[in-house]
Amino acid sequence: MTNILIVEDDPMVQFIHRNYLEKIGTFTNIYSSETISEARNLLATRSIQLILLDIRLKDGNGIDLLTELRRTKQTVDVILITAANEVEIINDALHLGVIDYLIKPFTLQRFEKSIHRFYAKNRMFDSDQLNQNQLDAYLEPQPHASAPLELDKGLSMATLKIIQEAIAQLSQPFTVPQLTAKTGLSHVSVRKYLNFLEAHHFLKSDTIYRKTGRPFKTYQLLTTLPI
C-alpha cells in the first residue's frame, strides 16, 4: 500500500498533480492539503509514504516542513514541486534528502520520472544489503538511446518501468501473482501491461495445464525494454 500527500495551496495545481497521479495509477490513496498545518494533521493520522510538496504556502515554507520531517526522523519521502528556482533553496532541498526537485511548469513525462525514482528507491531498500551495481543503477541511471515505446491508451511509462524492473528481479518464467506481489499493482493492471509487452514481443507466455484445477499462464522475458 502506497499513500501520497499533495501539499499545494493552488486548487488548479492540486488538480493537475492528482490527474497525473491517477494516470500513473500506482497509489492506494491520494490526500491533499493546502497548508502546512493540514499536512501535519494528515501525517499524524494517516500512513503517508510520499509527499509532493510546494515551498511557498499560505501558512509557511515547505522547506521548514521538510526540515521538521528530517529532524523528527520521519521516513516519508518528499518530491518538491515548486516555482522556486533559487540555487540556495534547491541546495537546501537536496541536503535535506528530497527524491527529486521539479520546477513548475513541467511535463507529465518529467513527473513520471520523479515517481519512478521514488519506486526505484523503495525497491532498492527492500533488501538487507546492496551491492555496488545496485547502487550505481539507482544513483547513476544510464540514458537510453532507443526511442520510447508508444503506449496503448490507459498505460503509463512510469508504471511500465515499475513492471520492467520487477520482472528483471523475478525468476524466469514468472506468473501474474508473483509480479503483482512484487510491484504492489492490481492483477488487472499487471495483466494489461503483460498483454502489451507480449503483443510487442518483449515476452512470451505459456499456458500450464494441470490434472486438477484451472490452467494458468507463465511469462518469460525475451528482451530488455527500450525505456
Automatic annotation (TrEMBL):
Keywords: Activator, Cytoplasm, DNA-binding, Phosphoprotein, Transcription, Transcription regulation, Two-component regulatory system. This is Transcriptional regulatory protein. GO terms for molecular function: DNA binding; DNA-binding transcription factor activity; phosphorelay response regulator activity. The modification 4-aspartylphosphate is found at residue 54. Pfam families: Response_reg. CDD domains: REC_citrate_TCS. Its main location: cytoplasm. It is found in: Cytoplasm. The keyword Disulfide bond does not apply. Coiled coil: none annotated. Residues 3-119 form the Response regulatory domain. Gene3D superfamilies: 3.40.50.2300. The keyword Oxidoreductase does not apply.
